[in-house]
Amino acid sequence: MRAFLALARTALRQQMQYRAAALAGAATQLAFGFLYASVYQAFYAGGAGEADLTLAQAVSYVWLSQGTYRMMPWSGLRDIDAMMRDGRIAFELARPRALFSMWYGRALSLRTSPLLINLPLLLVISLLLPGDFRLRLALPMLPLGALSLLLGMLNSAAVTTLLTGTYFWTISGQGINRIAPMIGSFLAGNIIPLGLLPAALRQALRLLPFAAMLDAPLRILVGAADIRAALQAMALQILWLAALLALGRAVVQAGARKCMVQGG
Amino acid sequence: MQEIIRAEDLRVRFIVRKRRASLFAPREKAVVEALRGVSFSVNAGEIVGYLGPNGAGKSTTVKCLSGILTPTSGTATVFSRVPWQERVAHVRKIGVVFGQRTQLWWDLPVQDSFDLLCDIYDLDKRAYAQTCRELVECMDIGDLLRTPVRQLSLGQRMRCDLVASLLHRPRILFLDEPTIGLDAVSKLSLRAFIRDLNREQGVTVLLTTHDMDDVEALCRRVLLIGRGRLLLDGSLDDLRRLAGGKRVCRAQVRKADFPLPPGAALRSRRGEEAEIEFDPETLAADQLVLHLARTAGLRDVQIQPPSLDETMAALYRQMGEVEG
Amino acid sequence: MRAMRTYFALALSDVRSQMQHRASFVLQTIGNFVASLMDALGIAALFASFGALQGWSLYEVAVLYGIVNLSFALAEALGRGFGEFARVIREGNFDRLLLRPRATLFQVLASRLEVSRLGRLLQGAGMLALGLAGLPEPLHLWQGLLLAVCVLGGVLLFLGLLLLQASACFWTLESLEVFNILTYGGIQAAAYPLDIYKKWLRDFFLYIVPLGSLNYLPSAVLFGKDLPFPVWSAYLAPLAGAAFLALGILAWRAGVRRYRSSGS
């Protein structure tokens, strides 16, 4: 626990150096939150359609997805990409500890530390907003939701490591890193809450690993899932986490082997 | 002689905002006086060295004269135009080379950069082709024309940059540290080129540099600036005199230890080699030699003016003592 | 005429440098396409769930979306030099521009022509075509012209925004991320009919950053919607883009004046 706190403190101090960028990011997320919430209010004015969220839940979902915007795996570890290009990767491969765990640790910090400023800021503001724009959390589900959010972060870091592994295949790796995150974040509910999509589509998407990063915790936190549904979603998150970790490890190892054979 | 550059009482004052110490601390402002009343004039066909320590106001002056910067007060005319008031017309008539920066397009072959400049300066196609051919031959860059600029060595790039700044046949050339970072061969060829340009085509050159060999090779007249003020306008000898007019006596002496007369000081001693600095105003050269012969067991002696580098170092030291 | 020739000489040379890094160019184009495709898919999915949006059909909204994205893609392709202007200032390369016998605005404009914005351009054009194809009757000639003028007005407006953002660099020396709220937020907002928003938000996009006047007013007239304005205002609306660009030009001039009296 103490190690964790020390780590968090260092990360927070680092983030404070990018204060201006963090504030600009938060302002952007706030503005987009308002726009999305306004659009959903307008859609709901004509009835809930096929959505399985109430309007208040949809609005709350918007705020949470904006606050966790930087948790999404927007790319692999960029410095590794740079190392692959200029050959410094050889040093990275020579380090004793397992490449995958090392990268996974760094991916986790990359995905969580930006939230130290953004998430609390957005939560506080959106909790204080007037009526139809206010964030409303399902208090009894908070513990489960928080746990599920943690699983989401672990999943997102696993995807980040997987993306980093694809950098071993330079051009195609960069292609994957540029395009996959945008599609993935859509499938995760970052652009439109999955609960607002047509029923058949939404049910299919909730089985995928992308939903395990974002939609699962958000659905629980806004109170759109009962205990049973929440536990089911979390079980799926754990399953996907195991699968993504295994896949990531396989990709990183295959890449490293390819790299060694070619002599860097 | 026709006067083509005239600067009168140029003053430039900047307000520099410091970085905030913390998010809520007020921003501190500092007033920097980059130029505090600089006046000089340059005649057609001169090569003038513009010297001074870093931060003295050299590039501020060049920026004013090239039309980039509007001074706080004072005036300047170049070809009877005020540069900062008629920027576009003015820059057509001048060439500018910054040693540390290129004006060429990084990813494009050199020839393409030249062609773009022809478009930007709206040059007559035939005259441009002719000028380009001449300059390329003169600077010997024919082999480089198909190479992207990013692949050139510094010396090659500088030669191309110089050609680029002359494509529109300017009558004045501002050179800012043109030889910085160049190898000896490139420096020599660059100097020869500038000298020919001046002699054969009468192009006026204002040269700022820290390389005293550039000055020695090219300039008969120098301007010395310090802390925004003009300290000297004269010849290289004037510069040496300003630095104190000290002489250096290199002597081979047998004795390890010997007294020196007033007005002389030992600068270094290695084996039998002694370097003695003296001031001819208070101590005549023959007196010193006589003294050394009597007291130090003199074998051989050589008396020289100090190098320009030493002169400048002495001058900058003096400026530091006077003003800082 | 000569200015046009110089523009093409400069812009095409920039295109040639982009083509030297072909793989990265292709990736950027695809990435640009996919990014806007996700937004379009989101809109389509919402309509699939909810059926309609306060009297606007998917086709009509596709026209709104198409106009604003087409405009933005064109403006970004043309005005990329302004988007990257912070670097020019920071690296001290603005002096170089002042040493050349051309207006600085012209030189920055001509310095970049970003081909990868074809991605969003194709996507926006596709949506526009889709929306128009879904209209009950084909367009009259005058309606087509109105649309073209709208797109043109949008290009001018976004160029004005880019120009404001670049001009701010003369004071801040760094790119103000806050402008992204206006550009990307504006695209997001104007992809839907403005009458769905609260009054303050609607007024903001009608009068302050008049994006709505470029697609919403004319489209509303085209589709016969109720407007709180007289019909003729829709025909004047695209002028707002020109007015906004003029504002950007004034800001640029003030910035250059400041630069030339402070040297940094």
List the helices and strands and how they pair.
The complex is a heterotrimer of chains A (264), B (324) and C (264).
Chain A lengths: L1 H16 L1 H26 L10 H13 L10 H9 L2 H6 L4 H14 L2 H14 L13 H25 L3 H19 L10 H7 L3 H5 L1 H7 L5 H35 L3
Helix pairs in contact in A: 2-3, 2-7, 3-7, 6-8, 8-9, 8-12, 8-13, 12-13
Chain B lengths: L2 E15 L11 E15 L3 E5 L6 H8 L7 E6 L8 H5 L2 E5 L11 H11 L4 H15 L14 H13 L5 E5 L7 H18 L2 E5 L3 H7 L2 E6 L2 E6 L1 H7 L4 E7 L10 E7 L2 E6 L6 H11 L2 E7 L3 H16 L1
Parallel strand pairs in B: 3-7, 3-8, 5-6, 6-7
Antiparallel strand pairs in B: 1-2, 1-4, 8-9, 10-12, 10-13, 11-12
Helix pairs in contact in B: 4-5, 8-10
Chain C lengths: L1 H19 L1 H29 L7 H21 L1 H4 L1 H6 L3 H5 L5 H8 L6 H16 L7 H32 L5 H13 L8 H10 L3 H11 L9 H5 L2 H24 L2
Helix pairs in contact in C: 1-7, 2-3, 2-8, 3-8, 3-9, 3-12, 9-12, 9-14
Verbal overview:
The complex is a heterotrimer of chains A (264), B (324) and C (264). Helix content of chain A is 74%, strand content 0%. Chain A has helices at 2-17, 19-44, 55-67, 78-86, 89-94, 99-112, 115-128, 142-166, 170-188, 199-205, 209-213, 215-221, 227-261. The longest helix of chain A has 35 residues, at 227-261. A 6-stranded mixed β-sheet of chain B has the order 5-6-7-3-8-9, sandwiched between helices. In chain B, helix 4 (125-139) packs antiparallel against helix 5 (154-166). Chain C has 264 residues and is mainly alpha-helical. Chain C has one domain. Chain C is built from 14 helices and no strands. Chain C has helices spanning 2-20, 22-50, 58-78, 80-83, 85-90, 94-98, 104-111, 118-133, 141-172, 178-190, 199-208, 212-222, 232-236, 239-262. Chain A binds chain C through residues 21, 24-25, 27-28, 31-32, 34-36, 38-39, 41-51, 171, 174-175, 178-179, 182-183, 185-186, 191-192, 196-198, 201, and chain C through 23-24, 27-28, 30-31, 34-35, 38-39, 41-42, 45-46, 48-54, 176-178, 180-181, 184-185, 188-189, 192, 196-198, 201.
